[in-house]
UniProtKB/TrEMBL annotation:
General secretion pathway GspH domain residues: 79-188
Protein known as: Type II secretion system protein H
Major localization listed first in the record, in broad terms: membrane
Gene3D superfamilies hit by this protein: minor pseudopilin epsh domain (3.55.40.10)
Family membership: Belongs to the GSP H family.
GO biological process: protein secretion by the type II secretion system
Segments for region (Disordered): 1-22
Compartmental location: Cell inner membrane
GO (cellular component) term, any one: plasma membrane
């Protein structure tokens, strides 16, 4: 009877160890399965968040670049008008293609310059002071002027010379719905507004 009890006790211990080992293996398998599910869910959530966040960040960057371009143009208007009034010289604003010479275009996206036009030929000469030079717009921003107005001339008496108001349409990668305008009146004052559908569409087209 003692042997029988001893054998039963040993057998019970072996069975207990086997059951414990099986439970541990199952727990490890369950834990591994739960981790894979978590990883899959995390990747799915990350994809959704990225899909929402990236366009939002891109839109914000585009808005900042557009606002910067508008501020630069307003600064150029102000500087040109002030210099013309103080010195008595005409000041010309014109679009460029990245250099310091006027370009034959109404697309101002490549940058622009303002200079004192001492000889009155509307093109910058080697001895004419460069008042401001704006680099090309970035991040998909475009700036388009009124058709036929490739030069702006500020006169000593104040204001922009000749013709009707000049309208600049500013757009970017956010699309036509976010396009805005900057209107320069003959008296040198400017105001902001919304472009027509045609003007906004034209602004989005490649130069």
């Amino acid at each position: 009877m003692r042997r029988s009890a001893f054998h039963r006790s040993a057998m019970d211990r072996r069975v207990a160890r086997m059951e414990a080992s099986t439970r541990g293996t199952n727990m490890r398998r369950q834990h591994l399965g739960f981790t894979l599910i978590e990883a899959t869910l995390a990747l799915a959530v990350a994809g959704v968040v990225a899909g929402i966040a990236i366009p939002a960040v891109t839109g914000t960057i585009s808005a900042v670049h557009a606002a910067t371009a508008k501020a630069a143009m307003v600064e150029t208007f102000s500087k040109a008008l002030t210099h013309s009034t103080v010195t008595g010289a005409e000041v010309v604003l014109c679009p460029t293609s990245g250099g310091d010479a006027c370009a034959d275009t109404i697309d101002w996206s490549g940058g622009w310059i303002a200079f004192a036009d001492l000889d009155g030929n509307r093109n910058r000469g080697p001895n004419e002071t460069l008042l401001q030079q704006q680099a090309a717009l970035t991040n998909g921003a475009h700036l388009r002027g009124t058709s036929g107005r490739k030069r702006l001339v500020f006169q000593p008496g104040g204001g922009a010379a000749a013709g009707s108001n000049v309208t600049f349409t500013l757009c970017d990668s956010r699309g036509v719905a976010k396009a805005t305008t900057l209107v320069l009146a003959n008296n040198g004052r400017f105001r902001q507004g919304k472009p027509t559908a045609d003007a906004a569409w034209a602004c989005m087209q490649p130069p």
